[in-house]
Design brief:
Rossmann fold; 9-stranded mixed β-sheet; 666 residues; alpha/beta; 14% strand; 3 domains
Length: 666
C-alpha cells in the first residue's frame, strides 16, 4: 500500500471509529445529547483512537493490497476490532466509567463492519466494473484500463497467475475471468474471478468481456494441447501467452511464476522424464566433474543442471575462451554454486598431450564429453576437420581416461549416427564404436594404443574401472546453429522461411531435456551402452515453421512465404535412433532406453581408425571419406545416391552382434 493510500485509509478508519461510537450510543439510548453520554464518548474516543490505530497497524492492515482484499484480510479486521474492544474494556474498568455493555458490543460490531467494508469496497467496484452492462453504461468510469486477459486453466497455475498479476500492478494487465475445459469447474469463483466457459466459448466470452489476450496456465499440458489452445485463441483474434511448463517448474526455473510469450518449445512440450535424483546425487555429489565443450549450448546447460547435485569441483573445458568465460560467470552467480569449485580450462580436445596434462592435474572422477563439430553442411565441406575433432578428439579423451581413470565417462552422440548420410553422423558413429571398444577391452590388450603415438594399436594391461556410456538423441531446440533460431531471424527480417523439403521430419527435444538425459545416463551406464530417449512423434519441419510464423502473430503464406530449397549435403528426410542390427530395451528410468550395438572387431577398428586419423591429418578428403565408409558400411552421402550396403561384417571392419539388448546395469 502506497503512503498516500495508507493516509487515506487511516482517515477512513478514524472516521469509522467516531461514527461507530456515536451510532452505538444512539442505538442504545436513542440520543447522544445527554451531557454524561457526550463526556463518556469523548473520553473513550481520546483513548480508543490512538490505541485502535496502533492495533490496526500491528495486525498489518496498512501493509495489504486493498484492491484484492480476501478472507485473511477480514480475519485481521476481526482480530483488530476485538483487541481494540478488549483495550476499551480495560480503560472502562480502571477509569470507573459507568459505560453500557450494549454500547461496547454495538461499537465492536460497527467497527468491524465499517473498517471491513472500507477494505472490501474497492474489490467490489473492480468486480462490478467487469460486468458488461456496467462497462456499457459507464465506459471508463470504473477503471479496468489495463490490458484485459482471460486465464486458460482454472487450477493452481491459473490461480498463481492471477495472484502474480495483481501483485505486479505496473504490468497494466487486468484478469477478467477463467476458461477451463473441465465442465465441473464452470461457474466457480477463484480469486474473485469466475470460470466463464470452455475453449469453445472463447470467441463469445472474449467479445462480451472485451478481452485482448489469453494466458495459458496449464503447466502440465502436453505440447499438442498447447498447440490446439493457441490455434483456437488465434481463431478468436486473441494474442496468446503462457507460463512455464511442469518440467521448468520442477527444475526450479524460474524462481517466480512468470507470464511469457508462447514459444516453440511449448508446442512440443512432453511430460517430463522422471529422473532418479537419488542415483544422480549419489554419483555426482562431492565429485570432481569435467565437462568438455562446456561453452556450447548442451555443455553449458549440462553444467547448470549439475550444480544442484553438489559436485565438489566442476571443470569447464573448452577451446573458445569467450564462451568458457561466459559460462563460468553465469555459474558463479547461481546460488547452487556455493561450495562448488568452478575451474575454467582452456584446451583443444585434438591436443592429446594437453588432455593428458589436464587429467593428470585435475583427476576428474566424472567426464561428460559434449565437445564436437555438429553442423552437418559445414562438415560435408570439411570432412578432415570433422574426423580430427569428433574421432581424434574422442580418442584423445579415452586415452587420457585410461591413463587417469575416472569413475564414469559419458559421451553425447546423435541420431545422425544411425545409418548416417552425413560426415558428421559417420564420425559420431565411429566415436560411439571407440567408446564401446574401450568399455569392453580386456586386461591383456588395449585397442586404443599409446597416448602419444597417433596409432591405436598398442597394448595396456591396466583395466580401468571406468563405466562408459553414450547418449543418442535428436535435434535440440535453440542450440547454436539449429533450425529454430534461423527461422526466427528470417521472420524478424521479413524474409521467406527456407525449408529444404516439405516432407522432412525430425525428432526434437529441449536443451534441459537433453542435459538431464545425459546426466541420468551417467548413473545407468555400466559397459558402453548407448542410451535413447523416447522422443515421442517426429515433427515435420514445415509444421514447425508454420507454428513459428503464427507465434509471431503472422499467417504462413500470407505474411511470410515458405520456400523449399532442396535437401542439403548430408541431410536425410527421416532420422532414426537405432541401426538395423541394434535393439533397445527399457531401463529402470521411464522413457529412457538402452541400445546394444553389434560386436566390434577391435583390431580391425583400431587399424582403420589409425588410417583415418592419418588421412585427416594429411588433409586427404577422399581418403577420409573412404575410411569412414570402411568403418561405417551404412554410411552413404545423399549426393552419392540412396543405395546402402547391408550392415554386416563381410565388407567392413565390424562384426555382427550375437545378441540383443539388455537393461542397463545388468
Amino acid at each position: 500500500m502506497k503512503r498516500r493510500t495508507k493516509l487515506l485509509f487511516l482517515a477512513i478508519d478514524v472516521m469509522s471509529m467516531v461514527a461507530a461510537l456515536f451510532i452505538a450510543f444512539w442505538l442504545r439510548f436513542e440520543s447522544f445529547t445527554q451531557h454524561s453520554h457526550y463526556q463518556m464518548g469523548v473520553q473513550m474516543l481520546v483513548f480508543s483512537i490512538p490505541v485502535s490505530v496502533f492495533i490496526l497497524w500491528w495486525v498489518g492492515l496498512y501493509n495489504r493490497t486493498i484492491a484484492f482484499t480476501s478472507i485473511p484480510d477480514l480475519i485481521a479486521v476481526f482480530q483488530a476490532a476485538t483487541l481494540a474492544t478488549m483495550a476499551k474494556m480495560g480503560f472502562i474498568y480502571f477509569q470507573w466509567l459507568g459505560f453500557s455493555r450494549a454500547v461496547l458490543v454495538a461499537d465492536w460490531l460497527l467497527n468491524m463492519a465499517f473498517i471491513g467494508f472500507a477494505r472490501v469496497a474497492p474489490r467490489l467496484l473492480l468486480l462490478l466494473a467487469e460486468e458488461p452492462w456496467v462497462r456499457w453504461a459507464l465506459p471508463g468510469a470504473l477503471g479496468g484500463s489495463g490490458k484485459r486477459v482471460l486465464i486458460f486453466g482454472a487450477g493452481r497455475a491459473g490461480e498463481s497467475v492471477v495472484r502474480e498479476l495483481r501483485q505486479s500492478e505496473t504490468l497494466g494487465i487486468t484478469p477478467v475471468g477463467f476458461i477451463d475445459d473441465d465442465r465441473a469447474k464452470q461457474g466457480q469463483i477463484i480469486q474473485g474471478l469466475k470460470v466463464l466457459g470452455t475453449r469453445h466459448d472463447l470467441a463469445q466470452v472474449a467479445e462480451r468481456y472485451e478481452v485482448q489476450e489469453v494466458i495459458i496456465a496449464l503447466s502440465a499440458a502436453s505440447g499438442q494441447t498447447v498447440r490446439e489452445i493457441a490455434r483456437d485463441c488465434r481463431a478468436a483474434g486473441l494474442r496468446v501467452k503462457t507460463v512455464p511448463g511442469l518440467a521448468d517448474l520442477l527444475a526450479g526455473r524460474p524462481a517466480r511464476l512468470q507470464v511469457r510469450d508462447v514459444e516453440i518449445s511449448d508446442l512440443l512440450r512432453r511430460p517430463p522424464v522422471r529422473l532418479d535424483l537419488d542415483s544422480i546425487a549419489a554419483y555426482v555429489k562431492g565429485k570432481r566433474v569435467l565437462v568438455t565443450g562446456a561453452g556450447g549450448s548442451i555443455g553449458s546447460e549440462l553444467c547448470r543442471q549439475l550444480l544442484p547435485f553438489g559436485p565438489g569441483a566442476l571443470f569447464l573445458l573448452g577451446q573458445g575462451e569467450n564462451s568458457i568465460y561466459q559460462i563460468h560467470q553465469d555459474l558463479r552467480q547461481r546460488p547452487e554454486a556455493a561450495g562448488v569449485q568452478l575451474v575454467p580450462v582452456i584446451a583443444n580436445i585434438q591436443d592429446g598431450a594437453r588432455l593428458q596434462q589436464v587429467f593428470a592435474e585435475r583427476r576428474p572422477q566424472i567426464v561428460f564429453h559434449a565437445a564436437a563439430h555438429k553442423h552437418v553442411p559445414l562438415m560435408e565441406d570439411h570432412p578432415c576437420e570433422a574426423v580430427k575433432n569428433n574421432v581424434l578428439g574422442t580418442l584423445n579423451l579415452l586415452r587420457a581416461a585410461r591413463e587417469h581413470p575416472p569413475e564414469r565417462f559419458v559421451m553425447i552422440s546423435t541420431d545422425k549416427a544411425v545409418r548416417p548420410t552425413s560426415v558428421m553422423g559417420a564420425t559420431k558413429r565411429v566415436a560411439e564404436m571407440l567408446l564401446q571398444i574401450e568399455a569392453r577391452r580386456g586386461a591383456a590388450a588395449s585397442p586404443m594404443g599409446a597416448p602419444e603415438a597417433g596409432s591405436a594399436g598398442a597394448t595396456d594391461a591396466h583395466q580401468p574401472p571406468t563405466r562408459f556410456a553414450a547418449v543418442r538423441f535428436g535435434n535440440v531446440l535453440g542450440s547454436r546453429g539449429s533450425v529454430i533460431p534461423l527461422f526466427m531471424k528470417q521472420i524478424e527480417r521479413g524474409e521467406a522461411i527456407t525449408i529444404t523439403h516439405p516432407d522432412m521430419v525430425r525428432y526434437f527435444m529441449t536443451i534441459p531435456e537433453a542435459s538431464q538425459l545425459v546426466i541420468q545416463a551417467g548413473a545407468l551406464g555400466a559397459g558402453g551402452e548407448i542410451f535413447l530417449l523416447d522422443m515421442g512423434e517426429p515433427v515435420r519441419i514445415l509444421d514447425l515453421a508454420e507454428d513459428l510464423i503464427r507465434l509471431a502473430g503472422l499467417e504462413p503464406g500470407k505474411d511470410v512465404r515458405i520456400e523449399f530449397s532442396g535437401t542439403r549435403p548430408g541431410e536425410k528426410l527421416h532420422e532414426e535412433l537405432l541401426t538395423a542390427v541394434e535393439e533397445s530395451s527399457a531401463t529402470r528410468i521411464e522413457k529412457i532406453f538402452v541400445a546394444r550395438s553389434e560386436a566390434l572387431d577391435a583390431a580391425a577398428v583400431t587399424a582403420a581408425v589409425d588410417r583415418l586419423i592419418a588421412d585427416a591429418r594429411r588433409g586427404d578428403d577422399a581418403a577420409v571419406l573412404a575410411g569412414l565408409r570402411a568403418l561405417v558400411p551404412a554410411f552413404r552421402r545423399e549426393s552419392e545416391g540412396t543405395a546402402r550396403p547391408a550392415e554386416k561384417t563381410g565388407e567392413s571392419v565390424t562384426a555382427a552382434a550375437g545378441g540383443g539388448a539388455r537393461p542397463a546395469g545388468e
